[in-house]
Structures are given as C-alpha cells and as structure tokens.
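I had to read the description of the data format several times before I understood it. In essence, backbone conformation is discretised, so a fold becomes a row of integers matching the chain in length. I therefore recommend that a typical entry be quoted early in the introduction. For illustration, here is how one protein appears when written out as sequence plus structure tokens.

***
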Amino acid sequence: MTDYLDFIPTITERSQIKSFIESDAGVQQQESKLYSVFAAWWQVHAPSLSELPKTKKVMELRAEFLSSFVDSLQPVGLLDRFKVVGVVASWWNEQRYELRTLSESDFGGLVDSWVDTIKDALEQDEDEKKKQAKFDPLNHKLVGRLMPDYLQDIAEAEAKIAELEQQKEAFEQGEEAEADAGEEGEESEAVNIVKDLEIKLKYLKNLIKEPKKELKILKKSPLLNADKIAELEVFIQEHEVEIAEIETQLEPYKEIVKQLREAKAELKTLKDELVKRLEAARAALSDEDCRDLVLAIFKDGLIAELERYVTTHRQQVIAAVENWWDKYRVTLQDIETERDAAAQKLNEFLQGLGYV
C-alpha cells in the first residue's frame, strides 16, 4: 500500500515554502555540519598550502585538495560527489594563477602582485579601462582583508551621500508630491518645487530690476517725483518681501546641496587615497602576516564557493517543493468533490429546464 503525504497545515500559500525550508532546523543543522566539516578539513590541509613556496608542487597540492575535500565533505550528505568536486575545482581554477605565483615566489610576493594589480588598474587611461571588464579596486579581496576600516569609511561616506540625496529629492518633491502619492488611482507628474521656486525667484528679481534703476534716477529729484518714487518703493518692497520668503524657503535646500557637495568631495578624497593607504598597509606586514593574510583570503574564497553551491542546492530543493505544491496542492478528493458539486448543480439546472 502506498503512503500519501500532504503539506503541513501551517503552509497555506506557495510563497511560504521558501522561508519554511530556509528556517527549518534540519536544513540549518545539515548546512552547519557541512561548514564545520569544512573548517576541520581546512585546519588539516592548510599547512600543505603554507608549504607551497618551498615545495613548488602545485599539481600535487591540487590532487591532495581534490581527494581529501571529497573524502571529508561528501559523507555529510548535503552535496553529492560531483558538487563537492565542483566546489574545490571551481575555487582552484579561480586561484590557479595566484597559486602559481605563490609557488614561484612567496606569500609576500603574492601580496605585492595584488597591490600591483590594483595600482595598474587605477593608472589605466579611460580608453584602456573601456576595453577591459569593469574593475572595482574596492572589491578586490586584498582590500577587504587588509583595510576593513578604510572600506568602513567608504561605506559611511556613501551612506551619507545616499541620505543627503534622499533629503534633496524629498525637498524637491515637497508636500504636494506626497499628497498626490496618497491619492489612489491617480498618476501624478514629477514635481520639483525647487525648480519652480527658482524660476519664480528669477522672475521676481528681473521684475524689480528696472524699477530699481528708475527709482535711483528719480531720487535725484525727490521733490519733483515724490508720487512716482512712493509708487515704485511700494512696488519694489512688496516684491522684495516675496523674494525674501522664497529665499528663506530655499535656505534648507541650499544647505543640503552644500553638504552633499562636501560629502562627495570627501568620498573622492578617500578613494584617491586608496593606493597610498594600501602601500602603507602592505609595508607594515611581516612575512608571517603575509602568510596569514593570503591563507585567510584563500579560505574566504573557498568558503564563498562552498556557500554558492549550498545556496544553489537549497534553491533546487525549494523549487522542487514548490513544483509539488503546483501539482498536488489540490488533492484528488478535492477534485472529485468539486466535480460532484458541479454535476449536482448541472443536474438541478437541467431539471429546472425540464430535461430531466
């Protein structure tokens, strides 16, 4: 007799499947076990990598990593043999030139080659940069490991710029845009009250420009032109009050723009200091520091590759369960019940028409 399974009652929507699987204790335990086994494997085999500058045996190290990695991680059961091999093979392929450099020099030499790569990329002219794939030196693995504080400064500067740009945009949109956004079913055109105010301000200033000149001339003979002078003064004063009001409205906006300009300049200064800071950080490293740094970077890369495979595997599981949901959420019993209800309704309809 075949046992049939059903979805648990707590899952009522297809969209719940992903979060349910990701938060499942069994899934998390199995993934955690895989990473623990990896950590133990690295502890055992990292020394072989440390000796590469002395042994020069690149291919022997590759064979050791492949076989031992599979022997250690496959028994966990989360990833099959092909996927486990894929993890270490993909990582090795990504690092092959750096591993070759390491075997031909030492850890300090590899770090120096990374520094040179970053410097060369930054020193390229615009035409050379366009010919090559976009390279962001801030994303280089050496920068992330060697200068985390510097990257934090960059992140904070970028966050400040983002916040100021948001404030600037909010000011430009103003309260009218917020009111329009609250009205359902209506599409509002883009609003920029700053632009409108600046246009009005320019208009008002131009409007009193000639009257001011005329007033200056008339005041040379105040007794003869008293009425006209009074008229112009009232006209100018009324519009100057309006000009002052607009300028007061725009003052906070000007301050935001000023701070935004300063924040962008600060970010540019930080980025321009990358090479200087990188060279200083490199100069402070001992041979032992270089070794630990390189091993940590290699380990980070292998963990990232392992995480990529684990994530892909998890997504495949989620997709499979979602596919089951699409196929089997409505049970045969439900289908038969709906069919019988429809048949009964049809029968009643036919009876009403006198066909039955």
Summary: The chain has two domains: 16-135+286-332, 151-272. The two ends are 41 Å apart (CA to CA).
